[in-house]
Amino acid sequence: MYRIFLLCGLCCLSACQQENRGDQNEVIQLHLGHNMPESSPHHLAAIRFTELVRQRSQGRLNINIHPAQSSGTDYEMISLAQEGKLDIIVPPTAKLSTVVPAIQVVDLPFLFPDRATAHRVLDSVGIGLFNKLLQHDLIGVSFWESGFKQLTTSRPINTPQDFKNMRFRIMRSEVLRDQFQAWGAQTIAIDFAKTRQALMEKVVDGQENPVSTLFNMGFHEVQPYLTLTNHGYLSQVLIFSRKSFDRLPGNLQEILLQAGKEATTYERELAAAQEEQQLQVIRAGGTQVTTLSQSTRAALEQAVRPMIERQRINFGTEIIEQFRQGVEETRSFNEGELLIGLDADMAGNSAYSGLSIRRGIEIALEEINNAGGVLGKKLVLLARDNSMVSARGIDNIQRFSALPNLVAVFAGISSPVALSEIDLIHQKKLIMLDPWAAATDIVDNKHNPNFVFRVSVRDEYAAPFLLSEALKISDQVGILLANNGWGRSSYEAFTAELKKRNMEPIGVAWFDWGEQKHQEKIDRLYAAGAGVIIYVGNVLEGVEIVKNIAAREKRLPIISHWGITGGRFQEMAGDALTQIDLRVLQTFSFIKNNSPKARNVVNLYKKLYGVKSESEIIAPTGTAHAYDLTHMLAKAIAKAGSTDSDKIRHALESLGTYDGLVRTYNPPFRPDFHDGLRPDNLQLAVYRNGVLIPMDR
Questions:
Q1: CA 238 to CA 170: how far, in whole Å?
Q2: pTM of the full predicted structure?
């Protein structure tokens, strides 16, 4: 009842102040609500924040602080802020997931190795999430912290098996629920303010929170065991109500923003300083404090890996990759590691292509490292996003080249990016492995010696294959191509093949990367009398073209290069896929593939990424190609007995027969030819219920 009256009072006060904010001399009253007690770093930082605001506004802004959920639960405060009835809030990121699910990425277990990394990533990559909050009338300012999560329990935790049959209190969060379930525990969502009582009454057996939080709430007083796990990072977001903020003049808005950022630094320093002091008090009080062993920690981290991968669908793979790249940005590597770089679209419109390549490499590394690694060292993958922008790709290659123990760089989906990097690759003498980009000149690059090796489609092979398939439908072939290095490479191959047949295309239309209006281009191909269209492009353009043709009375068949498979094409195209005849170039499929190697890879894929069937494997060709290339690289390093790039290059050129996933390579490469696939590896597939199925199956 008290809470209801207080909320009504806040609403009335907020409404009253709205009428008077036009008076330049009147003090504007703002209200800040948070969920922590008055002894917490959050409350002390809120006091510092109010002092800075009052001083810099010369008394025009006064902030009233309501601690310990006295203005409502976190969910109530979020709702009030959206309505403009509560001006400032500091909710945990997990509580914001009901508004912006992607912000739960901060709660992923084992994401940050230390506080400094967490601060750096949140202050760069993390603030990108604030754009999503803005869509819900919330203005994110900065990330505050409680610190790394630890576990208090009613019985000790020493091994992964100790989680069995235990019940943990969690915030309402899918990520946290799945985390504990992956460890074999049960979860109950309980309001923060009621957690201590639930622990006392043994409704639950344990809870997770940073030291400062559990200390201030007295959780250690009702639970005998504290295990230092650092398994997750608990962060809060300092948020302004957009409706409240917009009512303020610009100079006062700037004061609030600047003071909020300064208070963030103070809050973080205070949280870190308090933690060690509080641990000493907890130990002195009789609570048994232990640190999780490295072996148990590794087992827990491995157990949640599939759960993290499943969350890509909810968060967006690009967000997870951006955070992972941010974490790895300043990572130090030891002498026992050999590094493999991945320069691909990890966060753009074709991010699934980068993800498929990543997973192919990771599956191969799982096998290689479990067998002892290479030259007695572990192979480690480091991925960087280029979003199909050449300048980013070149910067990635520069960064990779400066790393010690780098043995190779994998390319991604984009032929233009790969082509732009060729000179730098050879200048730095880096091994480049290409599992996707198809432009012929990526491999036939006129460099001698040549450091680029590919297991992928070669446009010189793709063109006659796609053309022959199109001619089975109609001899009136229209061609629709991306106006870039990949499109031009394909066009040269198409025209050369048509010339052999004394033919010409019925029409050719070009589109720019990112272009979405294709009506006129398609109209021209129809007007020219096209009976079939060959498409060379990526996801965004492909979606619009498919939808355009599906909406026509006469729906021309489409024979497509495989660029559309590198993103969320089937999801974005929707029902249009069921209304047209679309056939897509592929080289490999796990569907109904009973080869022992394919089944082994599928089983590992399920284990690592939490999928239930091969139909859930994203962009399978990228995974298969990258898998084979990674094993070839490992064999070449072993054969060379060295990480010297010249010796690895020579070993790749003389590798001998390799029985791979995609094919038996006999051999994969020669000194004068660095393409591992042949024309007989090409096939067509069609979408059935969102899954690419080879036409012969």
A1: 22
A2: 0.92
